Amino acid sequence: MKRIVLLRHGESTWNKENRFTGWTDVDLTTKGMAEALKAGELLKKKGFHFDKAYTSYLKRAIKTLNYVLDGLDQDWIPVEKSWRLNEKHYGQLQGLNKRETARQYGDEQVQLWRRGYSVAPAALSEDDRRNPRFDLRYREVPDAELPRTESLQDTVARLLPYWKGEIFPTLEHANELLVVAHGNSLRGIVKYLKNISDEKISSLNLPTAVPYVFEFDDQLNLKEDYFLGDMDEVRRMMEIIANQGRSRED
């Protein structure tokens, strides 16, 4: 049996403030740090020994991975970072409060921006300082590949070459891999692995710092997937995330 664990980063400062984050490089909250350490301790308790880890270029994911590896006492394993694991780019929505945006544009429109498969928010302009072409960390990425906004479909197209070309083939000679990334980039991976339809993927909300385990046989066929931890708590966290883009709290 071989396993890949997908892990969304711990709570970030903009998660706490209910803002669209995307490629904005915000930090973890104190709660997010604690969530990451807890995830590492849980993985250690369950006997995980990772051969390699992958993460994005954004520090909320990088720091989550560091805390997880610390909790596992596996700080020494090789880590590879890729911009292709970054969160979906939210374009001009980045920095806006989700609930306030829903009050302005309506719950249905915000749901499409957040969870619709093919709908992208308005793009950043070429002279917007938030445009990734101004960010040194992407200086090696061809400008044509850097998004100014993305739908989930765009995000999947961006990350799947890396998944198919780098991460998944590594499982041929490894037993356990860890991927720490973001809600939407991980939703794209889950969609691909489980062959979830464009319509049904909109209902998947991944909680922060809860390990999501995918088990494969020796021929790399998916056999089982499950979250670690209390499923009632996982479902509660999922519901909170689903409600973040609504104009009114339930």
Strand content: 5-15%
Overall morphology: globular
Major sheet summary line:
6 strands, mixed
Rg of Cα set: 17 Å
- Report the uncertain regions: none
- Proportion of residues in helical segments: 25-40%
**Overall number of strands:** 6
pLDDT averaged residue by residue: 96
C-alpha termini separation: 42 Å
Q: How many separate helices? A: 8
Order of helices and strands: EHHEHEHHHEHEEH
Strand arrangement, major sheet: 3-2-4-1-5-6
- Based on helices, strands and strand pairing, what is the structural class? alpha/beta
What report would you give on this structure?
By secondary structure, the protein is an alpha/beta fold. It is built from eight helices and six strands. Strands 3-2-4-1-5-6 form a six-stranded mixed sheet. Helix 2 packs across helix 3, helix 4 packs across helix 5 and helix 6 packs across helix 7. The longest helix has 19 residues. It is globular. The mean pLDDT is 96.
